[in-house]
Amino acid sequence: MTGRPLEPDPDHAGVGTSEAMAKSVIEPQISQQTAEAGPCMRARVERFAFEGELLFSGLDFAAEQGRWTCLLGPSGVGKTTLLRMIAGLLPGAVCDVAGAPLGGQVGYMAQQDLLMPWLDAAENVMVGQRLRGERRQRKRALQLLEQVGVVEHAGKLPATLSGGQRQRVALARTLMEDRPIVLMDEPFSSVDAVNRQRLQTLAATLLRDRTVVLITHDPQEALLLGHKILVMSGRPAVLEEAAVPDTVTPRRTTDPALVGLQEKLMQKLTAALEEVGA
Amino acid sequence: MTAAGRPLVILLGLLVLWQLAVWLSDIPPFLLPGPGAVLEVLWTRYETLAGHTLITVGEILLGLVFGTALGATSALVMAYFRPARAWLMPVLVVSQAVPVFALAPVLVLWFGYGLAPKVAMATLIIYFPVTAAFHDGLRRTEPGWLDLAQTMGASRWSQLRRVRLPAAMPAFASGLRVAAAVAPIGAVVGEWVGSSAGLGYYMLLMNGRVQTAAMFAALFILALVAVVLYFAIDILLRLALPWQPDSDPSLKPE
Asked: Sign of torsion, CA A94 A97 A99 A102?
């Protein structure tokens, strides 16, 4: 199962929010619990130690199919390690999706855009086909570049593109792979605030209906994009679920339900940080 | 001052200094001939010098081709087959620890007085910088690219061919630049040890006849060949790798 069971939070009223706000916090928690019944992508790590420290011990991770799961937590707690395990880049995790093995279903998007500097934007979108020796579908690559709004840069080398444009090309490349599960490791953290918001909206729209696991250090990002938020903390790490409004993503920053939730999420993160002793 | 004009000014400045040194000192012409005397030799013995130049250039180019091919192959084999690295690395280090010049007499003994020992010398001297630089480039691929390739289902061979190989091209280019700079050394040392043609042979011959101006003329041509070779390869590499990150801020876009 995922993290700890959901229980009513006793110090919930102490956050200093209004009665109405408190209500909107409790409700989504209930709906979240019912959504838990859907099929899940699961990863279980029996034991994983790195440099003498026990990072994971009997860790269970679950992401509901077709929804966005955001993973928060202090640096060094093991978020990226877990994501790399699910991606098959590190051994140690037993993963399945609705009982079937995970092989070949996972797309991966890292903090850096990882565009190959010797290929132009369109070729970078088709890089998966190039790497597998398949026929390249240029028409589809250009359609995807159109969708992410950089089709006019299709023939340019990555070095001549801005950070935001490069990350858009990386998003198009992820879409080109068309995998049901998409793992993202802080993909929007290296771009400026305006571009970050555009990219978030774009990703939430284009990757709707996919199983997305998003690592982020930004609680607001998690609340805007996540159907479920997990906070990873401690050593060995445990996962704790945080409350999320049951509204359509991407949510607007002006969503009144977010105010109290962001406050609570910050408290959870602070507690997690102190646990690590940072 | 344009980038093209600067070397010309430096060259002219050196010529002036040279002439001044000849005028102001009592150095006899058989030790230090003036630029005028050297120019005269270049003019009058044009044909002889051209013939020797062609031979030396041929040796250098052949050495470059063989040395680069051999070095690139070694680097690729070491990058793809891990056991090969363990076996080839010591060979590589030894090939560098033994002074190539000390091998010259052996090479002449084996290959005779013709083209072969000089090409072998140039090949040997080029082999190490090319192999070392290229192998380093192949090993230092951005790990994120390899992660991405792995999640995309690329085979190990495909990762080497389509990610690590192109990513190592700038490092390979640095190796080639070094090779272009040292290749003439190999050819000339080979000629010194035993030959009947080439600029190195001509220099030794003129040295024995105390025709210092002719020796300087051959030296001048040799320097020119080395510089032209280096810049030609540099320009070719820049054209071949337009995406290569350049640390020169004046060449950055935007």
From this structure: negative
